[in-house]
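Dear colleague,

Thank you for sharing your sequence with our group. We've completed the structure prediction you requested, and as agreed, I am returning the results in plain text so they can be pasted directly into your records. Please verify that the sequence below matches your submission; if there's any discrepancy, let me know and we will rerun it promptly.
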Amino acid sequence: MIRNIIFDIGNVLTDYRWEGFLADKGFDAEMIKKIAKASIMHPLWAEYDRGTWTDEQVLAAFVKDAPELEKELHQAFENIAGMVTPRAYAISWLQELKAKGYHVYYLSNFSHKAETECAEALNFLPEMEGGILSYKDQLIKPEPEIYQLLLKRYGLKADESVFLDDTLMNVKAAEEQGIHGIHFLTKEQAEEELRKLGVRLLPQPRPRQDRKDAGAHEAPRRQEPQGPVPRLLYQAGPAGLWRHPEGRPEHLLRGQAHRRRPHRVQPPD
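Please find the predicted structure tokens below.
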């Protein structure tokens, strides 16, 4: 039986929008590719999340490997506010799971700089019972030690826990530790996978019917009288239009008012 639901953060409970972030800085598509290759896709980016390298050391290493991009790299990473942004469903989703009796935790590769400068994206953390941001323990996914640490720290049983991550490699690493895994693609897909594991969730909303199909379920409409309508005299009243006393009796008329495994790299002395 699943009792614990463990979430990755980036691209699960938040958007990790590095391309949009760089575009917001004014870089064109070609420059975004160059900057990403020199930084976000650099092997040292994982060490940034591990917390063993300082911001200055990591940036210096990026510049060393791509000196022609020194200006752009400094401009891009001087402040990374806006790289991680909130997802509207995060808080309500966690609250729903907690209301059903489940325990919710986080397990994410996350740098101190991201936690500090993208703090508004982490507005859901008070809803969670705990978790691990990689830089604080100097461990990163998919290393087995980080999963073991989470289980031990919070007294969780692996077979009662499920882990959601948008990176398949990290999901498989969790499964190797006996934790159920879900490769996250969308919230709707993840909820369906959770249901298969017996997690109780609110039912999926039913799709709206087409008008031609809906007609069969509509209440019958009032039949209008056939033939010529007698000429009547009406007068206004507080509840609508009333039959004038000189007219025939009639009804009251009322107004209707949704990679690779990282390797530990030692920072320079």
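Summary note from our side: The radius of gyration is 30 Å.

Kind regards,
the structure core
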